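Tutorial, part two.
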Amino acid sequence: MTGRSNALNALPTNTTVIVGNGTSFSNVAYSSSGGTSNIISRDSNGNTVTNNIANSLASNAGGSTVTLTAASARTQIFSGTGASTLVLPNANTLVNGWTFYVNNNTNNTITVEYNDTTTLFSVPSASYVQIILTSNGSSNGTWDYHWLLPATSSNGQVVIGSGTSNWKAATLTAGTGVSITNGSNAITINATGVGITWTDVTGTSATMAVNNGYLADNAGLVTLTLPATAAQFSLIRVAGIGAGGWTIAQNANQKIIFGSSTTTTGAGGSLSSSNANDCVEILATVGGANTTWTVLSSIGNLTVV
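Running the prediction step on this input gives:
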C-alpha cells in the first residue's frame, strides 16, 4: 500500500486489512483451519443469503448440571436418566437475541436457571424449547422461551396450560354425564346419563331404570315398578298406547308427588293412567332408597293412590 491513511490508526490490534488490487473480492478467501471459506457479503440492509448455517451442538448426560457461557454451543441435548439443571450465561456477556435450544431426551425434567441459579422454568421430558435473550441489562437478563411439541405422547393427550407454570401433555377428565375414549390421534367424547332410552313394554309388568322411558303397550294393565334406588335428579318417562293403560308401583318408603297430591308412601301407593294414551315424566327430587319422585309433566287425568 502506498501512502498511509490516518483511519488506519483507529483500527484495533491484529486487524486484517484486505486491499483490492484489481482483484475481485469473490476470489479472496480466508480460513483459519485450512478449509475453503469465501468472505461473506452483506446487502445494504445488512442481510446475508446462504444455504445453511449449522449450529454447534453439545451432548449432556441426564442428571448433570451444565453451566452455559458465551462460548457454549447453541443447541444443548440432554439424554439418559435423572433430573438435570441448565444454568444460563451472564447476560452482560451476550447481545440481545442470543439464542439457545434445549432438547430434553431424558426421562426427567431439566430445570433452567438464571445466571444466579434461581429458577426460570422447567423443561418436561421429551420436550424441545427455544430460549431467547431479550434484555442483557443485568447478569440474569430477561429471557423469553417458546416450545415445540414432544415427538411422542400417549393416546388422547393434548397440550394443557396451568396458567402459572409450563404446559403439559395430559388427557381430558370426564365429568358428570360425559364419557371420554382416547385413541391414536383421536378423542371421542359422548354424553352419558342424559337423554332417554325407550323400551316398548309389550308384557304386563316391568321394573323401570332411571333415565329411561317406557311405553305401556298391552291390552291389559301394565304395572311399571320404580327402581329400588335412584340418584337425585334421575328421570323416568311413561307413555301409554295399549288399551289396558299403566300404573306406576312403588317400593317401600317411596312416594310420588303430583301437584298438591302425594301417593301413599310405600308399596301401597301408586300413580296410574285413566286413559290408554296418558303420559307422565317424573324426577327424583330426593335420592336414595327412600326416593321421592315429583311429576314434572303429565297428559291425562292421573289417579293418585
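The chain has a mean pLDDT of 86. In part three we will examine how such features are distributed along the chain.
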